[in-house]
Design a protein that fits this description.
heterodimer; A: mainly beta; eight-stranded antiparallel beta sheet; two-stranded antiparallel sheet; 3 helices; 10 strands; 33% strand; globular; B: alpha+beta; three-stranded antiparallel beta sheet; 2 helices; 3 strands; 18% strand; elongated
Chain lengths: 154, 102
């Protein structure tokens, strides 16, 4: 079983079939192709997207539906192709399709989620993209400062 | 900031070798064509924002900030419906990230 040294989780062991591949990396991280999803019971519902090439690169994320239960997912035909999904069908967040928003946790700024460009992972093929729709009404800095209100299910 | 009025099929040059053409004008949008040398990357502003946001997110991961956020959001997340499907092979716990199929 492969092992990898990370900055935040120390040494981790993982199975090859858990590796998530971003065929074109993420914006700003074009060379990072392989990631692991890491959940820790203590930090639920956060999910960490840990790079498998640079141990210091780790994105905290939240499932978009935990931030906005009515989140409307829009994916370009190109990104659908990358994910191995049919282009003529609207993708639905579900058992095989995970949609995560990257969280920015700065010391001098309130925590925000990037709902403008969600990370979409097809668990059937273990491929992922960070999609940036052409027309989006979502913010790249969606505030999480009043999460107790924001997260209440309707 | 230079402000200039352009019509469809007119263009402006930036720095002599970057041409921005107005290709089409719709009710709430314009279609631009940008001719630039290969070494000048042309990206949408959202892509730049996303790059910057990704850089900020990957750099500021501190355990105390993480646990602070978790503390704030956990009480509400507990009422979120978590499906109890079969675990995805090789990805224990991942089923908790997805909504159940109807």
């Amino acid at each position: 079983m492969p092992e990898f040294s990370t900055k935040y989780f120390d040494r981790i062991r993982y199975e090859e079939q858990s590796v998530i591949c971003f065929p074109s990396g993420l914006p700003g991280f074009d060379r990072e192709r392989k990631f692991l999803l890491i959940e820790q019971p203590i930090n639920k519902p956060l999910v960490f997207l840990q790079s498998l090439s640079r141990g210091e690169i780790c994105f905290p994320t939240l499932p978009v539906l935990a931030i906005d239960p009515d989140f409307r997912l829009r994916v370009s035909p190109e990104d659908l192709r990358t994910l191995g999904l049919p282009e003529n069908q609207k993708p639905r967040i579900g058992q095989d399709l995970v949609c995560l928003a990257i969280i920015s946790l700065g010391e001098n700024r309130p925590p925000t989620a990037n709902l403008l460009s969600p990370v979409i992972i097809n668990l059937k093929t273990n491929t992922a993209v960070q999609t940036i729709p052409l027309d989006s009404s979502y913010s790249h800095q969606h505030p999480l400062v009043a999460p107790s209100e924001a997260l209440v299910c309707s | 900031m230079l402000v200039t009025r352009r019509r469809s099929r007119q263009s402006v040059f930036i720095g002599g070798n970057v041409e921005v053409k107005i290709l089409e004008i719709g009710p709430t949008w314009v279609k631009l064509g940008i001719d630039a040398p290969k070494e000048i990357p042309v990206i949408r502003s959202e892509q730049k924002l996303t790059s910057e946001e990704n850089l900020a997110a990957s750099q500021a991961l501190r355990p105390d900030l993480v646990s602070g956020l978790v503390e704030q959001i956990r009480p509400a997340s507990a009422v979120n419906k978590m499906p109890s499907g079969k675990p995805v092979p090789g990805s224990p716990g991942l089923q908790a990230l997805a909504e159940p199929r109807p």
